[in-house]
Amino acid sequence: MAALGWLHPRRRSATARSVLAGEASAEAARKSSQELEELHGRAEDVPPDETAPAEPEAPEFPVAGDEKAAAFFDLDNTVMQGAALFHFGRGLYKRKFFQRRELARFAWQQAWFRMAGIEDPEHMQDARDSALSIVKGHRVAELMSIGEEIYDEYMAERIWPGTRALAQAHLDAGQKVWLVTAAPVETATIIARRLGLTGALGTVAESVHGVYTGKLVGEPLHGPAKAEAVRALAAAEGLDLARCAAYSDSHNDIPMLSLVGHPYAINPDTKLRKHARAREWRLRDYRTGRKAAKVGIPAAAGVGALAGGTAAAIALHRRRH
Q1: Do 40 and 151 touch, CB atoms closer than 8 A?
Q2: Which three-class secondary structure state does DSSP give residue 1?
Q3: Higher pLDDT, 31 or 227
Q4: For the purposes of burial, counting CB atoms within 10 Å of the CB of 119, is it exposed (0-12), middle (13-18) or buried (19 or more)?
């Protein structure tokens, strides 16, 4: 009978774990962004990714020179076709991180999210525990190195040029651009760097001395937790959320989209499209025909913890205690 519960979405408000997850993600994002600036200069000086169109479309927003504004982009099916975590899992399987039986289970869970379009807490917990067990005991540096390879193998060609152009418009206006995703913060940071973005907010997993413990800091960065991460980052960066923009394809990100003054529905699912039209939010759809209803795999927040923030998470924990 428990399986029947998966057919009914459950609304959740921000919890203490959501706030912890958001704050940990914001701190990890700022730390990685600062490291990138020290190594490569300011994000806006990074050449555009080769997948970006030569002449990006001119959006109605942003306002050039507004340093109090920034842009927050969901990743799965917004910036990239499909789920980053699914492609990451394919790469780990190729490298024998887990067996065929686990791959079949992972694929079944992804298929469920695609068909149902909702996330059940118990189902997500099972998927999350499975994912964490895969990386437990592995070094963070090892997963980062593998993540670079997986991006080239599976992700680079799946970036939506239209969304990439929107992100570039914010960079060209002198604003910071952040990915916000339930995917591992390390994976998200790799993608952000490859696209020339400022940084990424993602799910933070605990590590000790550079080795994953198999636990999360808070919960996956999903739904309310995404909003908390954006709120925490905006406070730390001195941003005015009313002047910021956010982009997503999923109704699960309505809490994040509702925080900013310029929300965009990108390749929206049915619920988000309806919500956006009712509130006169801007819409962009880079899919065509029937493909729009089928492309990609919805992000499985339950498995958004294959890897996560390290030093920032530990620092946050120590400061709290």
Answers
A1: no
A2: coil
A3: 227
A4: buried
The radius of gyration computed from the CA coordinates of the chain, to the nearest angstrom, equals 18
Amino acid 201: pLDDT:
95
Supply the residues annotated as catalytic: 74, 76
Residue with tokens 């933070």: 204
- Quote the tokens at residue 154: 């599976």
Query: Are the CB atoms for 247 and 264 separated by under 8 Å?
Result: yes
- Kindly state the average pLDDT of the residues 226-236: 95
The amino acid at residue 4 is: L
Strands 205-208, 211-216: pairing is antiparallel
Q: pLDDT-based confidence at 210, cuts 50/70/90?
A: very high
Give the global pTM. 0.72
Q: Provide the pLDDT confidence category of residue 310 given band limits of 50, 70 and 90.
A: very low
What integer pLDDT is reported at residue 97 of this predicted model?
A: 82
Helix then strand count (H, E) for the chain reads 12, 8
Helix (H) or strand (E) holding 178: strand 176-184
- The Cα 216–Cα 6 span in angstroms is 23
Least Cα distance to 102 among 130, 136, 143, 128 occurs for 130
Q: Which two tokens stand for residue 220?
A: 């996956």
Give exposure, 39-73, as e/b (b: 16+ Cβ within 10 Å).
eeeebbebebbeebeeebeebebbeeebeebbbbb
**Which has the closest alpha carbon to 154: 128, 187, 110, 186?**
187
Q: Please, what is the Cα angle at 230 between 216 and 163, to 5 degrees? A: 105
How far apart are the C-alpha atoms of 199 and 191, rounded to whole Å? 9
Average pLDDT over residues 37-55: 51
Helix (H) or strand (E) holding 166: helix 161-172
- The helix/strand/coil state of 4 is helix
> For residue 177, what are its two tokens?
């651009």
